[in-house]
Design brief:
The chain is an alpha+beta fold. The chain folds into two domains: 2-46, no CATH class; 56-156, LytTr DNA-binding domain (OB fold (Dihydrolipoamide Acetyltransferase, E2P), Beta Barrel). Helix content is 32%, strand content 32%. It has four helices and twelve strands. The protein has helices at 11-16, 29-46, 91-97, 137-156, and strands spanning 2-5, 21-24, 49-51, 59-61, 65-71, 74-79, 84-87, 103-107, 110-113, 117-120, 124-127, 132-134. The strands form four sheets. Strands 7-6-5-9-8 form a five-stranded antiparallel beta sheet. A three-stranded antiparallel beta sheet has the order 10-11-12, with no helix packed on it. It has a two-stranded parallel sheet with strand order 1-2. A hairpin with a 2-residue loop joins strand 5 (65-71) and strand 6. The model has no long low-confidence stretch (mean pLDDT 90).
């Protein structure tokens, strides 16, 4: 929902109905296109995913993945709905696939969805569903910096 209005009084009411943007008239053409690009990019990013029937029927959206863990040359994907399964992609393949998504490597064998993080401890990352995944000394600094960058971008939007 995008609300365009000449009345600022309805701004709060617009966000109560989960409007993505509230644009005050008159709207400059450049401002309108910038806002629309941002909204459309978010929409299409949330529609990206893949099909893996061994985990669930239908499309698995990237934003549904909590973390991916390496096992030999395969990986186990854990979803927010509690389902998990092993797929043939290597962890390095997933890192490449997810490079435009809010994921980062926290350990040599783990990639984590930033959106699933509740808190980060010294050696573990605590997820919203109660699970924990490791964060190693080797990856910790870059992981924390990337997570902070992600949070700053989320706050801006």
């Amino acid at each position: 929902i995008i609300i365009t209005s000449a009345f600022q009084d309805y701004l709060i009411a617009g966000y109560k109905i989960n409007a993505r943007r509230y644009l005050l008239k008159p709207i400059e053409k450049i401002e309108f296109f910038i806002e629309m690009d941002s909204i459309m990019n978010d929409y299409f990013k949330n529609q990206q995913g893949f099909y893996e029937r061994t985990i669930q029927p239908g499309k698995i959206f990237y934003h549904q993945i909590l973390f991916i863990e390496a096992y030999n040359r395969k990986t186990q994907i854990t979803l927010e709905n509690g389902k998990s399964g092993i797929v043939k992609h290597s962890l390095s393949e997933w890192i490449e696939i997810l490079k435009e998504q809010p994921f980062d490597q926290s350990h040599k064998s783990v990639v984590v969805n930033f959106k699933a993080i509740q808190t980060i401890g010294k050696q573990d990352i605590y997820l919203h569903n109660g699970q924990t995944v490791p964060v190693s000394r080797h990856y910790r600094k870059s992981f924390l910096q990337n997570y902070i960058n992600y949070l700053q971008c989320e706050d801006y939007e």
